[in-house]
Amino acid sequence: RRWARMRARDAIIERFERWCDAFGIVVDRGVVGIECVSKSAADEDALDDVDNVAGCFRVVAKTRIDARTTLAVIPKTAVFTTATSRLRRDVGDGVLEALGEVGVVCAVAYERRFVEDGSSAFSAYFAMIPQRENLPQFWWVDDDDARRKVLRGTSVEILLEEDVARMESDWMEAVETLNASSWLTFDAFRDAASVVASRAFFVDEQLGQGLMPFADLFNHLSDGAHFHVVGASTKTKTKTKTNAEEDAIRLESCREISAGDEVYNSFGDDHDNAMLLYKYGFAERTNVVRSIQFPDDFWNASNPSTATNFHAIVYFYEWLNENYGGIEFEIDEDGGLSRGLLTALCMASKDDDEWLEYEPEADDSSSEEDEETKTEEQQVKEGRFRSCVSECMDEEATSSSELLAEIKPELLFTLFAERFQYYCGDEISSAGPSELLVSILDDVRACLASSESSPGSFAVGGGVCGLSAAYLLRAQELSLLSAALVRACFDDDDDVQEASDDDNNANDAHARKKPKVLVAAPAYNPTVYLQKPSA
After folding, report:
1. Which residue, 57, 129, 238, 341, has fewest beta-carbon neighbours within 10 Å?
2. Taking the model in full, what pTM does it have?
3. Is the pLDDT of residue 164 over 90?
């Protein structure tokens, strides 16, 4: 069975290469070639535990490749977009474009109906693509899925909680717009969305987002791209490109590649592991997570043992969230608390209980009549309140370390205990920061061990997938949480710092660039751009 599967995939590759030739995609097959990911029995056994093995391909160097060598030239007419899709032909101009990024998802779902009988012009290409990519959105279908349980409280769960509702809304709009109830089921839409999420490139303003044959076979490696893209834009700063440059995309090596090495792309060196797992279904052991989020529903529940302190923090969180647009409540890549968290904690630490009885209104809600009816005492309280908030929020006036020094230790402990409980689900019983740190580090060690032994621990490109990736992400986020706990609660306690150093290697802050902000947008929105869209 194993070798039959290998032969079947080799036949798919051969058919795809003939299709590339017919569509004018130029690949020097003496320089680079397509291979199945698995070339050994051990790899093949591992692939049995992973969904959609038919899509497991990679590009390898057949000989030593020098820098500035052309690897492939891909005509834009060979890119699968709404403009080149069969659905565009059948529904007419303008309809798919009105759906935006959702239009590409619908075009993929529709095209698949004509792949098996060969009537789609892209049949050979679609045969290279799995029915769906193994993304976390599919793990959320089953409440008992082990991967979903491991990702509880992580950035990926926070994204997916809102993502599912957004996807259902987009699907219903598409069905109505295209009158597609007979063929566009939610399962078909979701499968197509996973392919667009993990494979699509934003090509240029005219084509928008699309699937790029051959270019989408390169696996990702952070800071490890072997090539860059030439010819995505139709104009340079100084001159208009030739027709050949406008109509094709060239992949050019940017450094030397040794014979036999896999040739890597980079989906974005600013993608941390949370982004990679959410959008592409894998995580890298050499990558990190660069933030821990505090979503809205985190503030809605608390451990009874810390309820009083937590209520005080929530009070100021809610006011800041309403009055300061775009304020962040997160732990950053160095274990530092964001200005929003520090301000909420600092205000809650003030020895002024009357603030908890005084509820300042939002800036735009007070009328002149309201101002006249306020007592002098109320106005003084409000002025003092807003002055304190402004001072805390002003990074030039007050440093983070100065704010941290003003925060009550019990409030810091409460924040970290609540965030750890958000990961665990069950009430935790840590009596103080030291016990909490031990509990977090125990969880980190257990997750790292599980990541090494779980199905999906084999390499796909530069990363791991499935349950292994879920454990890795959880370990990295908890490692970052422990680093923040040490930084905030233990300061220069050398013994505690030394105890946590080894475990914090799971999220070693060798970060290169601050990651993209992970917003609750559908995963099929573009993040890989060949040409940046205009503002």
Report:
1. 238
2. 0.84
3. no
To which residue do tokens 């003030």 refer? 350
Q: How many CB atoms lie within 10 A of CB 133?
A: 25
Q: Which tokens sit at 175?
A: 């069905």
Interval 304-329 mean pLDDT: 83
Beginning with the edge strand found earlier in the chain, give each strand of the sheet holding 26-27 in spatial order.
Answer: 26-27, 70-75, 248-253, 227-230
* Mean pLDDT confidence for 2-21: 86
Report the SS3 class of residue 268: coil
Report yes or no: 61 and 68 within 8 Å, Cβ to Cβ: no
CB 209 within 8 A of CB 193: no
- Max Cα–Cα distance, the chain, nearest Å: 85
Residue 112 is given by DSSP the state G
Please tell me the predicted confidence (pLDDT) of residue 433: 92
Single-letter code of the amino acid located at 366: S
3-state secondary structure of 224: coil
Radius of gyration of the chain, Cα coordinates, nearest whole angstrom: 26
Please state, as a whole number, how many other Cβ atoms lie within 10 Å of the Cβ of residue 113.
Answer: 14
Nearest to 174, CA basis, from 186, 163, 156 = 186
126: left (phi over 0), alpha (psi -120 to 50) or beta: alpha
Rank 66-75, 343-352, 429-438 by mean pLDDT and report only the highest.
Answer: 66-75
Distance CA 448, CA 454 (A): 10
| H helix and E strand count, the chain | 21, 12
Residue 170: half-sphere exposure toward Cβ, Cα within 13 Å: 27
State the DSSP H helix or E strand holding residue 516, giving kind and residue range, or none if neither. Answer: none
Query: Left if phi > 0, otherwise alpha if psi is -120 to 50, otherwise beta: which for 303?
Result: beta
The HSE-up count of residue 67 (CA atoms within 13 Å, CB side) is 4
Q: Around Cβ 486, how many Cβ atoms within 10 Å?
A: 21
Distance (Å) of CA 349 to CA 352, 403, 405, 411: 8, 10, 10, 7
Q: Are 522 and 170 in contact (CB under 8 A)?
A: yes
Region 323-350: mean pLDDT is 91
pLDDT digits (tens, 9 = 90+) for 482-503: 999 999 998 655 454 444 445 5
How far apart (Å, rounded) are the C-alpha atoms in residues 223 and 284?
12
Q: Cα angle at 245 between 243 and 250, to 5 degrees?
A: 150
Length of the chain: 535
What is the pLDDT, as a whole number, of residue 24? 96
Q: Report the amino acid identity of residue 328.
A: E
Tens-digit pLDDT profile for residues 511-535 = 444 554 444 456 667 555 555 455 4
Burial 187-210 (b: 16+ CB within 10 A, else e): ebbbbbbbbbbbbbbbbbeebbbb
pLDDT confidence of residue 206? 82
Give the pLDDT score at 322: 87
